[in-house]
């Protein structure tokens, strides 16, 4: 008589075993897609294709990016991964050779063209980050103990924010690029959220004002202020007439305004810290009848309309959640958001999902 384990094995045919093995290996080496994407971004492959009028051979790419001629076949292998994963597209001629393929941009790789106003190439090294990866490799050890330090602290002996001070602007540039693209889309799709703000808005943790400047440009009636730490504000542009910069600590005080904006801030913090921040926000805004609200731009895990177009977005949401674990951050589901809103003293909220990873949340006192 077969044991339970043997019965499980016997339910799989030879083909099913092979398919399961291939699927397992695919998951194990999926990180290679991220590394080839970063390599292509660092080399400027998307820019090279763009400069060649939107179509380039391997020789074109090597010439444009400085690839050594002896590495042409290696470049072909990298591009094969990136075309299989949909980052680039490829067309082949009838002649089979290393240089028969013509590579083109897709909607994804167009976001990597640095001459575009809405390019996301600076975000790639923020997400494909050896510091984050080495921290996440400590998950089994971290999960098995009551260790209160974050994975990043455990792996590197300091908080993430200590390293961003000396990263040459990598993190700041990545967040600014994300804000330019996010606000371009969100102001078009969810502009009413901001248009309804009566006269003033404070962007908490808004760095050098990319998000606030976009709001001020779209809605000139709104006086926009950025609150950030003193060392951040010290490097802010001095000639930005549309945005005022204030140095301070969001845990201590937030300047009064009709609306407070938090973009990708709360996912960095545990619930108890988010509640403290939100209470400071509530102190800074008027009543709901007087137009007061907090605008949060974050991921709401599980949000979005059903359909095939949501597959990437929903997987990205849960992947981002585990990624954020490296600094003890979290991407929250709606019930988790609701819990911290009400514990912070707010009375109501409204979530406007998008087809991407972000949602716009309006929280009312």
TrEMBL record:
GO terms for molecular function: acetylserotonin O-methyltransferase activity; protein dimerization activity. It comes from the Eukaryota. Residues 26-115 form the O-methyltransferase dimerisation domain. The keyword GTP-binding does not apply. The active site is at 267 (proton acceptor). It is an enzyme of class 2 (transferase). It holds the Pfam family Methyltransf_2. Methyltransferase which catalyzes the transfer of a methyl group onto N-acetylserotonin, producing melatonin (N-acetyl-5-methoxytryptamine). Belongs to the class I-like SAM-binding methyltransferase superfamily. Cation-independent O-methyltransferase family. This is acetylserotonin O-methyltransferase.
